[in-house]
Structures are given as structure tokens and as C-alpha cells.
Design brief:
8 strands, single chain, alpha/beta, binds magnesium ion, binds adenosine-5'-triphosphate, about 20% strand, globular
Length: about 250
């Protein structure tokens, strides 16, 4: 099952991704994909990353004879993708990383596209934390996901932006079985106007993810946590996880 998190900057994509990965990894080995060149999912998971796609690309640029003549660089990396993965007990982590030089994002994006074909379907659960904004959607780096979680802050602008991202996903034909809107970091209740707007945007389900002091404190201290399941955020997370199953 591919679960992709999408949304504008700073809304909680990596926070929700990390909580999802940690919860799902209690059941199965999970592939966590940090598809943000400015990656920090690994920090939120407490995983010390040993390699990235961008890093291997830089190595190849420095030593081009690593790659047989009959092969493109993308093909070579796709074949050696396990080399750049960080494998822990329950979580396998693939980090896109930041390549050096011009035009390189296309390169890492292309490798990621290969991964969708070959690597990602091998896992029962793959959680993909995308970079902020539209880039990955518009370039179809993400060709499909079983579940797309559009994360928003609790503002009208935020929710409408999530709606536009979902529309873009439709326009570029990114297939998904379920599209969820997660309005995150909510203090108190959301307003009726925001709820109405959220419900009007065509998502299969709308979640309200409360502001959580455990998350805020862990972010401040740089700690890795499982949000307790008896907090409002923990309960929302549990409901979200239950709903992921078909
Ligand atoms: N429910 C929540 N309660 C408290 N703090 C939260 C909550 N969700 C996110 N945060 C905090 O908001 C900040 C941004 O979250 P996060 O890094 O997950 O966003 P992001 O969408 O991944 O950002 P980026 O676009 O930069 O990748 C972090 O400091 C995080 O701890
Ligand atoms: Mg992030």
C-alpha cells in the first residue's frame, strides 16, 4: 500500500508521515521514502541515513566509469538502489537527497519514478513524504498512490490550497483509491466555515488532527516520539490508520 503525503510547506507532512511510519512498522516492515530534497523525515524517525540517491549521483559524476557504457546513470542507480537505502530493524529508508549541480532534480526525480515501478511495490506499506508544493505532482514523480493524504493547516487558504493540489493530481492523472484531507495542528475546534469548505472539495474523508504538545516538545528538543494514543492527536492518528485498510 502506497501512502503519499502532499501539501504546502510546514503543514505537518513529515510529522504525520513519521507517526504513520512508526505505527505501521509495529505491524510490518515499512518503506519510508523521503522525497523532499530538504529532507528531515529521517530526523523525525531517529534514523541516521547512510546514503541518498543524490549522493550516489554525485559519486557517479565524480567516477563515471562506475557505470557500464551500456547503461544510463538512472538505470545504474535504480539497479543499485539498495546501496543507498538505510535499513533498520522495522523501517527501510530511502532518501532522495540533494544532488549538486544544475538540472539534477530531474535526475533524482527520474530515479524515484523507477522506484515506483520496481522497489516500492515490494513493500506492504510505503509512506512517501513529498516536498512542499506542486512540483512532484506536476512532474508525475508520483505516478500513483493507494492513499493520498493532503495535509493542510487550519486556515481557509490552506484548505483551498489542498483542494487545488488534489485537482492538480486529477489533471495529471495521478491515480489513487482514496484522497484524504488532514487539517493539522488544530487548536480547539475548526470553524463551521472551514468545515463546510473542507467538505465541499471532494475528498473521500476529512480528518482534524489536533495540535499536540508532545509533538511540539519533541520538535523543540529534537526527540523521536510515538504520540501516545490517549491524546487527541493520537486518537485521530489511530482512526486514520484504521481507515487506511481497504
Ligand atoms: N499536530 C501538531 N501539533 C504540534 N506541532 C505540530 C503538529 N504538526 C506539525 N507540528 C509542527 O509543525 C512544524 C512543521 O511540521 P513538519 O515539518 O511536519 O511540516 P512539513 O509539512 O513536513 O514541512 P516541510 O514542507 O518544510 O517539509 C514542526 O515543528 C512540527 O513539529
Ligand atoms: Mg517535511
Amino acid at each position: 500500500m502506497i501512502i503519499a503525503l502532499v501539501g504546502k510547506g510546514g503543514v505537518g507532512k513529515s510529522t504525520i508521515s513519521s507517526q504513520l511510519v512508526r505505527a505501521l512498522s509495529k505491524k510490518e516492515i515499512v518503506l519510508a521514502v523521503d522525497a523532499d530534497p530538504n529532507s528531515n523525515l529521517c530526523d523525525k524517525l531517529g534514523i541516521e541515513v547512510t546514503g541518498t540517491i543524490g549522493g550516489l549521483r554525485n559519486e557517479i559524476v565524480a567516477h563515471p566509469d562506475m557505470v557500464p557504457e551500456s547503461m544510463s546513470k538512472q538505470e545504474y542507480i535504480s539497479l543499485h538502489i539498495r546501496q543507498v537505502m538505510t535499513e533498520t530493524d522495522r523501517i527501510d529508508m530511502l532518501v532522495m537527497g540533494r544532488p549538486e549541480g544544475e538540472g539534477c532534480y530531474c535526475f533524482t526525480n527520474d530515479v524515484l519514478k523507477h522506484c515506483f515501478r520496481d522497489l516500492i511495490p515490494k513493500y506492504k506499506y510505503a509512506v512517501i513524504d513529498n516536498e512542499a508544493g506542486m512540483e512532484h505532482l506536476s512532474r508525475r514523480v508520483l505516478p500513483r498512490a493507494d492513499i493520498m493524504i493532503f495535509v493542510s493547516d487550519p486556515t481557509m487558504v490552506g484548505v483551498r490550497t489542498a483542494g487545488r493540489l488534489a485537482k492538480l493530481a486529477d489533471e495529471v492523472h495521478i491515480e489513487s483509491d482514496k484522497r484524504i484531507l488532514a487539517i493539522n495542528n488544530v487548536s480547539g475546534e475548526i470553524s463551521d466555515a472551514l468545515r463546510q469548505e473542507a467538505l465541499s472539495l471532494g475528498f473521500d474523508k476529512v480528518y482534524v488532527m489536533p495540535h499536540d504538545e508532545f509533538i511540539a516538545k519533541a520538535a523543540m528538543d529534537g526527540n523521536v516520539i510515538d504520540v501516545p494514543s490517549d491524546t487527541p492527536f493520537g486518537r485521530a492518528m489511530e482512526e486514520l490508520i484504521t481507515d487506511l485498510e481497504p
